[in-house]
Amino acid sequence: MPNPLYDALFAPLKGRATSFLHLPDGTSLTGDAFHTLCAQAAGALVALGLKPGDRLAVQVEKSPQALALYGGAVIAGVVFLPLNTAYTPDEVDYFLSDAGASLLLADGAGEAALAPVAARCGTRLMALNADGSGSFAKAMAQATPLAGPVPREADDLAALLYTSGTTGRSKGAMLTQANLLSNAEVLVETWRFTESDVLLHALPIFHTHGLFVATNTLLMAGGAMIWLPKLDIEALIRHLPQATSLMGVPTFYTRLLADPRFLRPLVAHMRLFISGSAPLLAETHTAFEARTGHRILERYGMTETNMNTSNPYAGERRAGTVGFALPGVELKVTNPETGAELPQGAVGMIEVRGPNVFAGYWQMPEKTAAELRADGFFITGDLGMVDADGYVHIVGRQKDLIIAGGYNIYPKEVELALDEAEGVLESAVIGVPHPDLGEAVLGVIVPKPGAALDTDAILRDLAAGMARFKLPRALAVLPELPRNTMGKVQKNLLREQFKGWFTR
User: Which of 42, 355, 385, 443 supports an S-S bond with 182, CB 3.0-4.6 Å?
Assistant: First the structure.
């Protein structure tokens, strides 16, 4: 019986004697060895009572075993729910309860803090550590590997990825087998990946970029990956001579350019550098090409759709654009108020339709209906235009999304926390240019009458209950926030006022 995602991505690993994962310690896992890990993970999930369609929540450090969990979930027909390792127990509580997760796998160091959360949500908790130890690792070792995949259909749910909204309430984007498979097929063709490729993988795997874009593409192509636990410039430079390609966020490239060892001979053999998850500054494009002779390829995607557009592999890669709609993806620019399609060159709402577009938001039919039209077009929330040559430009984000170092931060969630801080009357959270992160979070706060604000103390208190990547890098104090005649805070004025905060 078929299991489309397994058949295309993981089945070819079985019996493969060549390396699939090159590890930092100099060892490697063959394709067959990694397939065995996946089958053992699947066997453990089944032995623990998980059934097809059950949700598996995963908040663990990056490791071969962590990636094998994804493969094991595919084999067992379980819905994979990766969680940012920076999420606090309070944040994890929402995801577990909303998704109705049957099992949470966490790093052993965080197990004690998560135990009451898991108990409250009726979710079983087990540990998987970066070194391959932990209670779930023992369960994997003792389990009988599944002999074959559980049958699944193309429209069956494969993953659930949470993305926040402007209300602060996270939404679970439902991604089917067909969604993930179609995108992998297109990216292999568009970016010309083959079995000869070795991808330098330093991205996190709790995000669609590192998990589905990078990993699925290499699995589909039959290539290999150099598996680094995190962004480490020393490690990147050390392993670049063994790689053919690199996928990263703008921070990867700004930090490489800041290292004097990053010179043309180091990357002369490289085939492709790809950047996404945040806009790449034009000056980074120029500096990178001057230093290396390579032109970075930018693309555009999101949690709900994976990849939508890409600059061409062969052809002009234009700075400030995200290229053209991928094969099979329809893209149009519409009037945000009426939904009417706008002419070429006009700025409006970007909408996309294609096999990559998600099935809707988990248990949120109203939100699904509001953002996913009946004709299949998804309202991205991004404002953009298509120029005379067909290149897509992203000009703004209607939802005030902040992307710092490749991570998505939604201001409303941070504002709600700031507003609760002692002495704070109100707040506005904005993204402003940052030389390393591309964009950084700045909190603008207004004190209550007579209050003396301790901004350092506010940030310390905020850090206790919020993931680090969401925290403001700084707080600015104003006597009042700028507002229009309707009382809405004019964040555009704040962005202009504080645009040089981190670049002075």
Answer: 355
Let me know how long the chain is: 504
Q: Angle of helix 89-99 relative to helix 111-121, nearest 10 degrees? A: 30
200 and 245 Cβ atoms separated by less than 8 Å:
yes
Q: Could you give the angle at the alpha carbon of 86 between the alpha carbons of 304 and 454, nearest 5°?
A: 115
How many whole angstroms separate alpha carbon 191 and alpha carbon 439?
A: 27
**pLDDT band per the 50, 70, 90 thresholds, residue 329:** very high
Tokens of 289: 């090409």
Contact 384, 393 (CB under 8 A): yes
Three-state DSSP class for residue 24: coil
Other CB atoms within 10 Å distance of the CB of residue 450: 6
Mean pLDDT of the residues in the chain: 93
Hey, what domains does the chain have and what are their CATH numbers?
Answer: 4-152 (3.40.50.12780), 192-295 (3.40.50.980), 402-497 (3.30.300.30)
Find the mean pLDDT for residues 384-408.
84
Tokens of 204: 């996190």
**Which position has the higher pLDDT, 243 or 413?**
243
C-beta separation of 305 from 378 below 8 A: yes
∠ CA 35-40-45 to the nearest 5 degrees? 125
Residue 425, burial from CB neighbour count under 10 angstroms (0-12, 13-18, 19+): middle
Contact 494, 484 (CB under 8 A): no
Q: What is the DSSP letter of 47?
A: H
**Does residue 1 carry a pLDDT above 70?**
no
What are the tens digits of pLDDT across the range 252-274?
998 999 999 999 999 999 999 99
pLDDT score of 166 more than 50:
no
**Of all helices (H) and strands (E), which one includes residue 68?**
helix 64-76
Report CA 414 to chain centroid distance, whole Å: 19
Q: Under 8 Å CB-to-CB from 94, ≥6 apart: which residues? A: 170
What torsion do the CA atoms of 137, 142, 145, 151 make, to the nearest 10 degrees? Answer: -80
Of the pLDDT bands very low, low, confident and very high (cuts 50, 70, 90), residue 109 is very high
Q: Which two tokens stand for residue 431?
A: 């993204």
- Return the bridge partners of 29, or none: 21
DSSP code at position 450 = T
- Would you say 233 and 264 are in contact if contact means Cβ atoms under 8 Å apart? no
User: Dihedral, CA atoms, 218, 42, 77, 86, nearest 10 degrees?
Assistant: -70
Q: What is this structure's pTM? A: 0.84
Q: CA 382, 383, 388, 392: dihedral to nearest 10 degrees?
A: -20
Cβ atoms of residues 113 and 90 within 8 Å = no
Three-state SS at 6 = helix
The one-character DSSP state at 379 is E
